[in-house]
UniProtKB/TrEMBL annotation:
Topology in the lipid bilayer: Multi-pass membrane protein
Cellular-component GO terms for this entry: plasma membrane
Protein family: Belongs to the MscL family.
Primary location: membrane
Gene of this entry: mscL
Keyword match Transmembrane helix: yes
Official protein name in the record: Large-conductance mechanosensitive channel
Transmembrane segments: 12-31, 38-57, 77-101
Purpose of the protein: Channel that opens in response to stretch forces in the membrane lipid bilayer. May participate in the regulation of osmotic pressure changes within the cell.
Length: 142
């Protein structure tokens, strides 16, 4: 069982997946920073200068706090600002991945076209094949 696991881990697909997950996690932090530090402050300024992630609706009359963290401590809240922040984060990440896949596909298409263009023309048949073809054609006419 241990040997099977070692074989499974050593296969290229699993290693590629592991590298992809690690890079994806690091890339996610970059996207989080872009959303939280660059985009959301602009969106917050448009919506009155507040931190957009702190927008919430109290679901209990006992919630009187003005910040999301304090409101969560007091009771149930509908934290739509946090959800919108995560949603925008996802959309930006999905858009960037779409652009990357589109670029890779375009690169693959250009490489495939070059391979088709560089395909060598068929070499002319050797003399003995030409002679045998002529003999065959003559025998067919008889």
């Amino acid at each position: 069982m241990l040997n099977e696991f070692k074989t499974f881990i050593a296969r290229g697909n699993v290693m590629d997946l592991a590298v992809g997950v690690i890079i994806g996690a690091a890339f996610s932090k970059i996207v989080d920073s872009v959303v939280n530090d660059l985009i959301m402050p602009i969106v917050g300024a448009i919506f009155g200068g507040f931190d957009f992630s702190n927008y919430f609706l109290p679901l209990s009359s006992s919630v009187t706090a003005t910040s999301l963290a304090a409101a969560r401590d007091q009771g149930a809240v509908f934290a739509y600002g946090s959800f919108l922040t995560v949603l925008i984060n996802f959309l930006i990440l999905a858009w960037i991945i779409f652009l990357m896949v589109k670029g890779v596909n375009k690169l693959r298409d250009s490489v495939d076209r070059k391979k088709v263009e560089e395909k060598p023309e068929a070499a002319p048949p050797p003399e003995d094949v030409k002679l045998l073809t002529e003999i065959r054609d003559l025998l067919k006419t008889r």
